[in-house]
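Forum > Structural Biology > Help requests

Title: Can anyone predict the 3D structure of Malate dehydrogenase (Oxaloacetate-decarboxylating)?

Hi all, first post here. I have the sequence for Malate dehydrogenase (Oxaloacetate-decarboxylating) but no way to get a structure on my laptop. I'd be grateful if someone could post the structure tokens.
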Amino acid sequence: MTEKWYRLAVDIHRKYGGKISVMPKVPIRSLEDFAIYYTPGIAEVSRQISINQELAFELTSRWNIVGVITDGTRVLGLGNIGPEAAYPVMEGKALIFKYLGGVDAIPIPIRVKTPDEFIFVAKALEPALGGINLEDIESPKCFYLLDKLREELKIPVWHDDQQGTATATLAALINALKLVGKKISDVTIALIGAGASNIYTARILIKYGAKPGNLILVDSRGILHPEREDIDKMMIENPWKYKYAIETNAERRKGGIPEAIKGVDVVIAASRPGPGVIKKEWIATMNKDAIVFALANPVPEIWPWEAKEAGARIVATGRSDFPNQVNNSLIFPAVFRGALDVRATTITDEMLIAAAEEVAKYAEERGISEDYIIPKMTEWEVYVREAAAVAAMASAQKVARIPRSYKEELEIARSIIERSIKTVEILMKERIID
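Reply #1:
Sure, ran it for you. Structure tokens for Malate dehydrogenase (Oxaloacetate-decarboxylating) below:
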């Protein structure tokens, strides 16, 4: 099946010459309209913004523009393939942003050599953007870039591989734990992979109530613990990982993936494409009613049926062609919709938890089961509700320039997202999109 998707993807991208385009959203009836949209009328719009720069969010499309920025150093499971090869992924992100969030996103792969060059480019782009989505950037550089840009920019900056994956994982885990009758404060969790996704997932899980000592993280060299021989080097080169080497793993387990998995309740893998990264016999050593999230793309660390055969009760992957797709595509369009609509200055962890809880609640209301712990991307109403939850939390935390209630944002987000979906439907009906 994977090879089939590869072939289809190349054929379709060649047919359409990419996935997105720019379209006007104002009526054009005569030359007089151009006098309003461009010269001479536009001069007054520019003059007013020069007096008050905040008006750029009201008088231009900047309020709804997100830059999807990457240096192409860690693209999907392909690694450092460069900015040109990263473009299809950034464009795909932009497509999902628009269709499911009504957000006008622009792919921006950049050629830079150092983190400081990256920061310089991102800061230079700030006047053009309402928000920044960092994407497919190698670890630990991605942690530094997110921290620095969140600190220095006045628009929301988000790294989807960190925050998006962590939020989707939490949403799925909330419902998985309900089904097996366990509490997050009680379960032991092995996080296989200690890169961008799982480092932030650990952070969010702890904020949500997981005990730090109950988490066991594994990187390519084995389980994280304070006595590792590379701990001093880790402290200097990757302080984000070092923090969890010190604070987690109360049992002081040592070894690799099999030792980390033995006797735990939950496995969250975000490491490298499989299959075979996690073996069936290791899953068989987990506690009863085990939960396994194998999230590597394009191929999970273990095939879902293998995990089930080994005794796992609930299994999720990052793929849409298997049940329980835990993917950040369910998160980022709505988080930015809510953040942009209240003109948030940042995206906080509390906003992410609010999003995860709303996603989990939506699925629960529809009836959760072992094969349905999280909504599908086609259930677009969840994006509306998620955006409302994010906007309400941003307003409560006073990081919103235009505070709005859950109910107020619900109507705004529904209008924008519904319009985006209907626009595509009309274009397809009229064969403008073939």
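The first strand starts at residue 65 and ends at 70. The mean pLDDT is 96.
Shout if anything looks off.
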